[in-house]
Design a protein that fits this description.
The complex is a heterodimer of chains A (about 325) and B (about 375). Chain A has about 325 residues and is mainly α. Chain A has a single domain, classed as ABC transporter involved in vitamin B12 uptake, BtuC, CATH 1.10.3470. In chain A, strand 1 and strand 2 form a beta hairpin. In chain A, helix 11 crosses helix 12. Chain B is mainly α and about 375 residues long. Helix content of chain B is about 70%, strand content about 0%. Chain B contains 17 helices and 2 strands. Chain B has a two-stranded antiparallel ribbon. Chain B is globular and about 60 Å long. The chains are: A mainly alpha (about 325), B mainly alpha (about 375). Chain A: Keywords: Amino-acid transport, Cell inner membrane, Cell membrane, Membrane, Transmembrane, Transmembrane helix, Transport. Chain A: One of its GO terms (molecular function) is L-leucine transmembrane transporter activity.
């Protein structure tokens, strides 16, 4: 079979877009891992919850705002994004309050297994309220931006650009929060050593709420962007969870910056698989993109279990 | 020990267990009455018995990993699938390999393949914190599913493999009765074998690892080796269950390799009682009741008229069940107690505890179990 002639740079563009989504999801997962101390298997389905909450709000915002646009996308999409983020953040906190908090003494493994139950409840609720079909936000199809195509020879749509820019803004915002605000310092202290943070007078309870709010909102942003780039599906989050876990492990469990780096690498690799295949580096094509990400994760576990950034483990 | 004393010692003494077994006995009696009354087809019931047996086998396998050694394996469906596909590919005449071998080779291949894969996934993960295995095994399951789905030239992909031969067709029984008897024998053998190794020094080391791995290390145990052995044993049991399923259903496709299958087995084990082999069997029966029972919900006019789709309701039910068990009854229905103790020691201790009118906690504390460095079992 003759491979389609796609510029290698096109794969890199795709990789940057996909990485943005993975990074957003990985940060939340890593925050929960470091502060609440368990592998949250419901994180993928939290992304789905965010994506579907956004979809739900489209029906409200779209008639209100009509065709008003911003950066080449309709204004209502941005409001739907915000709605999805708020909804997922609230649901994450509520889940923590009614399910995870009361069983705090059952340890990280008990919480891990419980999170599977939570994931199934999220997904079942979505099936029950939205059905099992794939949906779209209804943003009109867009061609690539002409001047980028002419000068660089790669197709970049306005929505690609919006995803990458907004993800960068969110990640920068998180970075500033973690480093420049009291809340951020408290979060880092709690992640490092919760007991020490508590005896130092940090109200770890507030930190945990903040952590779920941030993690839920970022997961929802990732989910909405994934829904915008592909489809809004009830299984979208769970299907991507493994890649997000790979990113978190690659970066080193519990390290937020590691998760960002891991997300970038795993997202890139995921999209570059067809290119590597074309070049004969790996024998499998894009159908195995998730498997390649997983194999990289296992290889990292073998060589450096603490990940490329972190040292906990 | 006669059956009567066993029943007296293990069932009657504990009021909770007495209620559970009474409920099971009533349900069994109802099913039997249903068959004689002609409401339930005997073939259908035998098929369900075979399914329960297969689920029980899977649960026993997971119980070795999670219940004995505390290993979080989220690739139950994958090992089951490896077993089923090993059997189907080697024995079905119209499989892509087209060999049509005797089922024995299918079972052998299932054992070898699953053991190798278990070792491969164990090497990078079993030295690390237990949640790494959870993530890596879920990933492994996904990779295996992708390979079976995409490599059509070897596995027939999503169209599946049909024409798998039945087992032991020369037996003078109906097909359904034969498979049901085979699984009962398989289950009994596995049960006795796993119970024997659980009570052995090997099993005690595993229980120590589960409750305190550092302690086991301090006692000079190579915990990695023990965990690997438990992981391989459990995975092989799962693959045997898979190979049996291929010969039960006579058709196999990748759609059952999804993580939900794995989570069903997890429910069976934690509901039954983590670490308890009896619990695993009972849990498997409950899970089959949930899976098969919800299928008939649509037939009930009232629910059928609501126009609800049953699959998401079942998903919701399963999710809520996991949360509730983890929160309110982590010990499960039949937590492991007496079954960890040698029968002879058990006799003495039950006599002692009855004499002292002590509660059933007495058996654990009265020293007859001191062969192991720790009683283990429940650390969460």
């Amino acid at each position: 079979m003759i491979p389609l002639q796609i510029s290698p740079f096109q794969y890199i563009v795709n990789g940057v877009v996909f990485s943005s989504i993975i990074v957003l999801a990985a940060i939340g997962l890593s925050l929960v891992y470091s502060i609440a101390d368990f592998a949250n298997f419901a994180h993928g389905d939290l992304m789905t919850v965010g994506a579907f909450s956004g979809l739900f709000s489209v029906a409200i915002f779209r008639p209100m705002l009509g065709d008003m646009g911003l950066f080449g996308l309709p204004l209502w999409f941005f409001l739907a994004l915000a709605f999805g983020m708020v909804a997922a953040a609230v649901i994450a906190v509520v889940t923590d309050r009614i399910i995870y908090q009361p069983m705090n003494d059952s340890g990280s493994i008990g919480l891990l297994i419980t999170s599977i139950g939570v994931a199934l409840v999220y997904r079942a609720s979505i099936f029950l309220s939205f059905g099992s079909d794939s949906e779209r936000y209804g943003v009109a199809r867009q061609g690539p931006i002409p001047w980028i195509r002419e000068s660089f020879g790669v197709a970049v749509t306005p929505r690609n650009l919006v995803v990458v820019i907004l993800a960068t803004v969110l990640v920068t915002g998180l970075h500033l929060t973690l480093t420049r605000t009291t809340l951020g310092r408290k979060m880092r202290a709690t992640a490092d050593n919760a007991d020490l943070a508590r005896v130092s007078g940090i109200r770890t309870d507030e930190v945990i709420i903040a952590m779920w709010l941030i993690g839920g909102a970022l997961a929802a942003a990732g989910g909405v962007f994934l829904g915008l780039e592909e489809l809004v599906r009830p299984r979208m989050g769970f299907d991507i969870l493994l890649i997000v876990f790979a990113a978190v492990i690659l970066g080193g469990i519990g390290s937020v910056y590691g998760a960002m780096l891991g997300g970038l690498v795993i997202g890139m690799v995921h999209e570059l698989v067809p290119l590597f295949n074309q070049w004969g580096i790996i024998p499998v094509g894009s159908r195995y993109a998730a498997a390649v990400a997983f194999v990289i994760m296992v290889a990292i576990l073998l060589v450096k279990p603490s990940g490329i950034v972190g040292e906990s483990g | 020990m006669s059956v009567a004393t066993w029943v007296n010692d293990t069932l009657i003494r504990d009021p909770t267990e007495r209620r559970i077994f009474a409920a099971l006995a009533v349900i069994t009696a109802l099913l039997v009455v249903g068959v004689f009354a002609g409401v339930i087809g005997p073939r259908f019931l035998l098929f369900q018995v075979a399914l329960v047996g297969m689920y029980a086998l899977l649960s026993l396998g997971l119980n070795v990993q999670w219940g004995y050694a505390g290993l979080i394996n989220f690739s139950v469906a994958a090992f089951w699938g490896l077993g089923a596909y090993s059997a189907a590919l080697l024995t079905a005449p119209n499989s892509p390999l087209g060999m049509g071998l005797h089922p024995v080779f299918g079972f052998l291949a299932a054992i070898v393949v699953s053991a190798l894969v278990a070792i491969l996934i164990g090497i990078p993960t079993l030295r690390l914190r237990e949640d790494y295995l959870a993530i890596a095994s879920l990933g492994l399951a996904e990779v295996i599913r992708l390979i079976i789905l995409n490599e059509r030239q070897w596995t027939a992909g999503s169209s599946g493999i049909s024409g798998i031969p039945s087992l032991l067709e020369w037996l003078p029984l109906t097909g359904a009765a034969t498979t049901a008897s085979i699984i009962v024998v398989l289950l009994a053998v596995s049960y006795l074998f796993l119970r024997r190794i659980h009570r052995s020094p090997w099993g005690r080391v595993l229980r120590t690892i589960r409750s305190d791995e550092d302690l086991a290390k301090a006692l000079g145990k190579d915990t990695y080796r023990f965990k690997m052995q438990a992981f391989v044993v459990g995975s092989v049991v799962m693959a045997i269950a898979g190979a049996f399923y291929a010969h039960l259903n006579l058709y196999i496709d990748p759609s059952d390799l999804v993580p939900l299958t794995t989570f069903y087995i997890w429910i069976a084990v934690i509901l039954g009682g983590t670490g308890s082999n009896r619990g695993a069997v009972v849990g498997a029966a409950v899970v089959i009741a949930i899976r098969e029972g919800t299928r008939f919900l649509n037939d009930i006019a009232f629910i059928g008229n609501l126009g609800l789709d049953v699959a998401p309701l079942r998903l919701l039910f399963v999710g809520v069940l996991i949360i509730l068990i983890m929160r309110y009854r982590q010990d499960g229905l039949l937590p492991p107690k007496d079954e960890l103790i040698w029968p002879s020691a058990q006799k003495e201790s039950s006599a002692a505890s009855r004499g002292a009118a002590a509660s059933d906690g007495g058996v654990v504390t009265d020293g007859t179990t001191s062969g192991g460095p720790s009683d283990g079992g429940k650390d969460q």
